[in-house]
Structure formats: C-alpha cells, structure tokens
UniProtKB/TrEMBL annotation:
A Pfam family reported for this protein in Swiss-Prot or TrEMBL: Porphobil_deam
Gene source species: Burkholderia latens
Family matches, as HAMAP family: Porphobil_deam
Family, as annotated: Belongs to the HMBS family.
Co-factor: note: Binds 1 dipyrromethane group covalently.
Residue ranges annotated for the Porphobilinogen deaminase C-terminal domain, each copy included: 234-305
Pathway: Porphyrin-containing compound metabolism; protoporphyrin-IX biosynthesis; coproporphyrinogen-III from 5-aminolevulinate: step 2/4
Keyword entries, A-Z: Porphyrin biosynthesis, Transferase
Protein name in the entry: Porphobilinogen deaminase
Length: 328
C-alpha cells in the first residue's frame, strides 16, 4: 500500500463484487479490510456472485470460453451499479478488458510460483511412471508433458477446496496449484514442493490481485489508489503484454513472469505446444520506470518468441480450440 495522499472525499459506502469461492471471498475480504482501514467511516460490503466459470465443471476452460467466464457477471454488476469494484485473481482476468472497464489497482503480489501438492509423494521427480497428475491449466499441462512424459496428466476443475478433495479421495496422485491461493487460505502445509520459475514460469499476473471498476468511476479510482503497488503493477503490465501481443488465452500454454533484480525488470516468456514437444522461451531485461517501459519490455519478449515461431503455435491452438467448440 503506498502513501499517496487521499485527495477524494471519503466514500460513504462501497460494494465489492466477488466470486463466492472461499479463496475469492478471502481476496474480497482482504480488500474490504484494507478499505476499512483507509476509510473507517465507510460501509464496505461484499456482493458474492456465482460465475459461469464456477458452474461449468465438466470441461476445461479452454473448451468453454476461457477466462472471461470468471469475470463477466462481476462486470455486469459494475455496469449496472450493484457494485463499485470487483476483485480478481489477476491470472484469471482476460488480457483485453471490454470497453468501459479498467483495472485501476494491482495489489502487492503473493508468491507467484506453482505448487506441487500430494499426500504420498514429495515432488514431481518422486512420482512413478503412470502416476495421475491433475491440473486446471494448459500451461502446467504442457510443462508436465515436456518434463515428465511418463506421467498421466488429467484435467482438474473446481475451486481450490474441490480440487484438494479430489486429491484426498484418491482421484490423483498429485495436483499442481497456484501457491498464492494455498498460502492466502493458510494451507501452506499442503504444499510439498514449490516449482522453480525456471522450470515452470507462471501465468501472467499469477499471485497478484487486480481491482476492476467501471472506467467512468474516477471517484472509485481515487479511493483505490492507496492500494496500488507500483512494482507489482509494472511487472504484471509487462507479463500481460507478452500474452496480449501473441493473442494468448487459457487456450494456449503461455507463461510470462517478471522479476525485479537490482533495479531492473527481468521478463521471461514461454510458449509451448500442448504435448510439450515444442517449447519456446525468450528473456529480456531492462530499466522499467513506467507503464510504457513495461509494455515495451513485454513487446520485446513477444517479438522474440514470435521470431521463434510462437505465433504459429498460438494460431494452430486457437484454430483447433474453435473447431472443438463448434463440435460441442
């Protein structure tokens, strides 16, 4: 939280739109508590909502419409005035927002890494041939197929508690989850190993919370300004630019991860085929002082990936995904 001067009059009430999963509600409550600390007289409420992404559990996101399924209902609440802001896991937010909406605050990042979770095995390396590993993302699936071709990788849907329950009843030998969600819910003990970002670069925005508003609500933007973490925001802007420039979505195994080192931002982008047989990686670093610098760094990494053939992979996957939706 920065120390920016609060120039707008304090709000009397604020309503936060959120998905109703335990993790989503924790995130909304985290923002609510921060706002209450900033504005003690403000009545901050949470509007819990069930999204289409929460309802469709028998198919992977890449086959039913992607990340927008988790945010559309929340955006409707912003548009019609039922809510003033919506809190998202930033990795679940589409790279291009619909007209009329804005990501106005990005909060300090939690651990961006992927976590290995298992009741019987200490790490991915310990899993025997044929062991079933569950994951909800094509990015993680491609990583597993590339590095551990002897494992059986299967889809894993549902909220975090549902995924853990499926592991506990023996449906999977192990599952891969975002470390941030487990840590936020106090479930650190379920993490058997954290996967190094060199081995599995995270999705763009992973571990960060984004706050979305209706673009015309400049009053809300001013109230949220103290929650904005500029270093996290610049890193995330660079990451999201990689995905946006290549046309990425949850239908494409695409990773983008930025880290600050000695005052410079180091950005890694990775695009894979879903079978993990082809993996393209690009890295760039530079002094990033503002959003324009961050976008330029993201563009440099996307251009390098493009030169290696990433766009061909992306286009082929998107074409195949659209064909599959047509058959559904």
């Amino acid at each position: 939280m920065n120390s920016e001067t609060l120039s707008a009059p304090a709000p009397a009430t604020l309503t936060i739109a959120s998905r109703e999963s335990r993790l989503a509600m924790w995130q909304a409550e985290h923002v609510r508590d921060a706002l209450r600390k900033l504005y003690p007289a403000c009545d901050v409420k949470i509007l819990g909502m069930t999204t289409r992404g929460d309802q469709i559990l028998d198919r992977t996101l890449s086959k039913v419409g992607g990340k927008g399924l988790f945010v559309k209902e929340l955006e409707n609440a912003l548009a019609d005035g039922r809510a003033d802001l919506a809190v998202h896991s930033l990795k679940d937010v589409p790279m291009a927002l619909p007209d009329g909406f804005a990501l106005t605050a990005i909060m300090e990042r939690e651990d961006p890494r992927d976590a290995f979770v298992s009741n019987d095995y200490a790490s991915l390396d310990a899993l025997p041939a044929g062991a079933v590993v569950g994951t909800s993302s094509l990015r993680r699936e491609a990583m597993l197929r590339a590095r551990y071709p002897h494992l059986d990788v299967l889809p894993l849907r549902g909220n975090l508690d549902t995924r853990l329950a499926k592991l506990d009843r023996g449906d999977y030998a192990a599952i891969i989850l975002a470390a941030a969600g487990l840590k936020r819910l106090g479930l650190d003990a379920r993490i058997r190993a954290l996967i190094d970002v060199e081995d599995s670069p995270p999705a763009a925005g992973q571990g960060a919370l984004g706050i979305e508003i209706a673009a015309h609500r400049t009053d809300v933007a001013a109230w949220l300004a103290p929650l904005h973490d500029s270093q996290t925001a610049l890193a995330v802007e660079a990451e999201r630019m990689v995905s946006r420039a290549l046309g990425g979505s949850c239908e494409v195994p695409l990773a983008a991860h930025a880290q600050w080192r000695a005052g410079e931002l180091y950005l890694t982008g990775r695009v894979s085929t879903t079978d993990g047989r082809r993996v393209l990686t690009a890295e760039e670093c530079g002094a990033v002082m503002n959003v324009a610098d961050a976008l330029a760094l993201g563009r440099a990494v996307s251009d390098e990936l493009d030169a290696q053939g990433a766009r061909d992979i992306v286009n082929a996957l998107l074409a195949g995904s659209q064909a599959g939706k047509g058959d559904a």
